[in-house]
Amino acid sequence: MFSVVRDPRMSILGLKKKQPKTFKVKVITMDAEVEFSCEVKWKGKDLFDLVCRTIGLRETWFFGLRYTVKDTYAWLKMEKRVLDQEVPKEFPITFHFLAKFFPEKVEEELVQEITQHLFFLQVKKQILDEEIFCSPEAAVLLASYAIQAKYGDYDPNFHKPGFLAQDELMPKRVLMQYQMTPDMWEEKITAWYAEHRGIARDEAEMDYLKIAQDLDMYGVSYFSITQNKRDTELLLGVDAQGLHIYNPNNKLNPNKSFPWSGIRNISYSEKEFTIKPLDKKKEVFKFYSSQLRVNKLILQLCIGNHDLFMRRRKVDSIEVQQMKAQAKEEKARKKMERQILSREKQMREEAERAKEDMERRLFQLQDEARLANEALLRSEETADLLAEKAQIAEEEAKLLAHKAAEAEQERQRLEVTALKTKEEKRLIEQKMREAEQLTVKLVEQSERRLKEADHLKQDLNEAKDAERRAKQKLLEITKTTYPIMAAYSSPPLTLEGGGDLNLDAGPCRTDFKDSDMKRLSMEIERERLEYMEKSKNLQEQLKELKSEIESLKLEEQQQSSLFAPRNDPRLYFEPPYVPHSNVSIPV
């Protein structure tokens, strides 16, 4: 245990002024504002006890009334009158009811639910205001517990996207560190929030504090100091564990620490503080603070934190034991109530689901009944329509039977006609074959006659050529030999009557006479005329035969369409091919 040495020169005497009997005070807690009318003679403890009684707080040793004075803050002293301290002179006087000292282990030391709630609100505000450094991952987890404490269990039907838009959940530093939209942050927080189902409000707040107490800046009060005469700027940190020395730009990792268990004495004189370790071999640490008011504040925090440090290592007082027993009973009772409430809620949800199922089933049955009635009406209408159609079908069946009988008679008549037609067709086909054979013979004969005519024409041309050459030759011979033949009194040469012309001096000979040529030409012309007459008669016969075939085909198609099936092949007679040509035999 260490002792605190006070400099008698530090006592300050306030000027006594005439004051009224009462004055107004406004106390701001983390979740409310309360105004009191205080007596002039009240000390700080009187006002503090009144506030604690009003809010129902019994763990008073963690809290205090803080007020602002000039550029810093101070805590209301319990043993001095309120108006004798450096409180603001404006009425009502404003105080903030805040945690002055922090527990080492929140789960073991915070007994009352109101104490947990006030710590939760204050630590949450310090994290959001960045007075306590928090990593992004821890910030998201802490935000999920804060949402669980505020809204209860997550319900996707009630907690629609955007329900966290009005809540401040993350430090601005974390929001600016990542390029994420508010919807993306809400999605991450909601994912953790959904896993906290079944956690009550006080449990969620305690889980929040258990995570926050592991943060480096949790419960630490920082003050600017200088070391020795070199004016080296440092930071002094006071918390439940002891005193810590930091660099100004690093509040997370202290350069040097002095745990309460290792400090023998702390003293200060004006601006100089001296920390004497319990181990006398260690060096005494001295530092300086420029403001007297800040020195007093540091001294208060050191005394209070050291007292709580020693208190935690002793047996709890009867009051604390009673509070813990009552808190335990209260937690057990609340747990039982939550279980009962949970069962009732589950039963109500099951009843609501059963009701919804029954209503859905009722609606389904009503729809089925409506559909069945509609189907019944349609069936009745269909039955009437089918009965009417059956009557019409019966009448049509009778009519069709009568038509079938008529069709059968017509079919029989057509069969008889078809038999006759087949016989006529056979005779026609036979005539066609005969005509075809005759045509082939005529064509062959025509071709043969054409060939003979060509030969005869060729022979005639050769004969004419031979006659012409013979006459030419005879004229030549006559011109050269006529004088000699006249001398010998030979008979004159005549060519009119025809005859044989024998010339020993030349190779030419003619065997044709004009009468023979005329006779041959007449015979050829006569045969040509006879052939043309026969060909004309044959063409007329073929035309008559073709017209008869066409008429028979037309009659057969008309008859077959009455009794032949739709897909049966119909008889079709192709007229025979009769080759013909206009033969002309040149003379």
UniProtKB/TrEMBL annotation:
List the SMART domains. Answer: B41 (SM00295), FERM_C (SM01196)
Q: What range(s) does the FERM domain occupy? A: 23-313
Q: What is the lineage of its organism?
A: Eukaryota, Metazoa, Chordata, Craniata, Vertebrata
CC annotations in GO? cell projection; cytoplasm; nucleus; plasma membrane
Give the protein name, as stated in the record.
Merlin
Residue sites binding a 1,2-diacyl-sn-glycero-3-phospho-(1D-myo-inositol) per the record:
77-80, 296
Pfam families in UniProt: ERM_C (PF00769), ERM_helical (PF20492), FERM_C (PF09380), FERM_M (PF00373), FERM_N (PF09379)
Name the PANTHER family for this protein: MERLIN/MOESIN/EZRIN/RADIXIN
Q: Which UniProt keywords apply?
A: Cell membrane, Cell projection, Coiled coil, Cytoplasm, Membrane, Nucleus, Phosphoprotein, Ubl conjugation
Where is the major localization of this protein? membrane
Question: What membrane topology was assigned to this protein in its record?
Answer: Peripheral membrane protein
Q: Which GO terms describe its molecular function?
A: actin binding
* Keyword field contains Ubl conjugation: yes
